Prior knowledge:
Layout: E1 4-7, H1 13-23, E2 28-32, H2 46-56, E3 64-67, H3 79-96, E4 102-106, H4 116-130, E5 138-142, H5 155-163, E6 171-176, H6 177-183, H7 191-201, E7 207-212, E8 214-215, E9 226-227, H8 235-244, E10 253-255, H9 261-273
Parallel strand pairs: 1-2, 1-10, 2-3, 3-4, 4-5, 5-6, 6-7, 7-10
Antiparallel strand pairs: 8-9
Helix pairs in contact: 1-2, 3-4, 4-5
The structure holds fe (iii) ion (FE) (2 copies) and zinc ion.
One fe (iii) ion binds at residues 67, 70, 107, 142.
Amino acid sequence: MLNIGCHLSASKGFLHMAEEAVSIKANTFQFFTRNPRGFRAKELDMNDVEKYLEYISDKNFAPIVAHAPYTLNACSADKKIRELAKDTMEDDIKRLEHIPESYYNFHPGSHVKQGAEKGIEYIAEMLNGIITPEQNTVILLETMAGKGSEIGRTFQEIREIIDRTEYSEKLGVCMDTCHIWDGGYNIVDNLDRVLDEFNNIIGIERLYAVHLNDSKNPMSSHKDRHETIGNGYIGLEAITRVINHPQLRTLPFELETPNDLDGYAKEIEILRSLYNE
Ligand code: FE
Ligand code: FE
Ligand code: ZN
């Protein structure tokens, strides 16, 4: 079975997200851990969490993805902003420890004018200050489009972060199809080669989840503008190869396409029909 879901609003809690997911025939979902602008997080409602776990227990759910606020910048030149990123992540992960089968995805950050090396150093420093050998939550570094001075456009940069992190067994990668395409990896004409490169540099066993998006822009545009499935430069044929690829097909796929719930339901229906059972 294809493990597919989409980004949902967390404002009404976990049970509500799971019910919404089921209503659109999803068996996973993604959500922001907190308002990306406001940074404040609600206390975890353990009653909601229990009901959620009970609800999904017989529904064949794949792991879910918690997304850090995209305004976090772990490699800002400003120490206060770096500390805010660390405190936010530490708190998010503490709460996620109560949600079995969840991954924590974050954008590595933007180095602005400091250079990628400095940025990578700061990101690894933050991870080293957060990760404990006891934690269950796997932290996912998201592959980025390379907009501005984003770290994580290349597989090498992600490898370097992993190499500098002490408990790197807690680190994985979430591959965003729009981002790697915009970043210059040709997943349309040569998906095998891109995955070989991923495997050689990072190791395919580090890949835990996929953000499934089409792109409004051609390859190497470094733009990061998501398009609905089949209506962008990646296209439905290439996306069909992505969901069926032997190295990807069992992973959770999360749609982050510009859609309302109905739009997501339609995309999920199409993608399920294109999946080779
Ligand atoms: Fe993201
Ligand atoms: Fe993404
Ligand atoms: Zn994006």
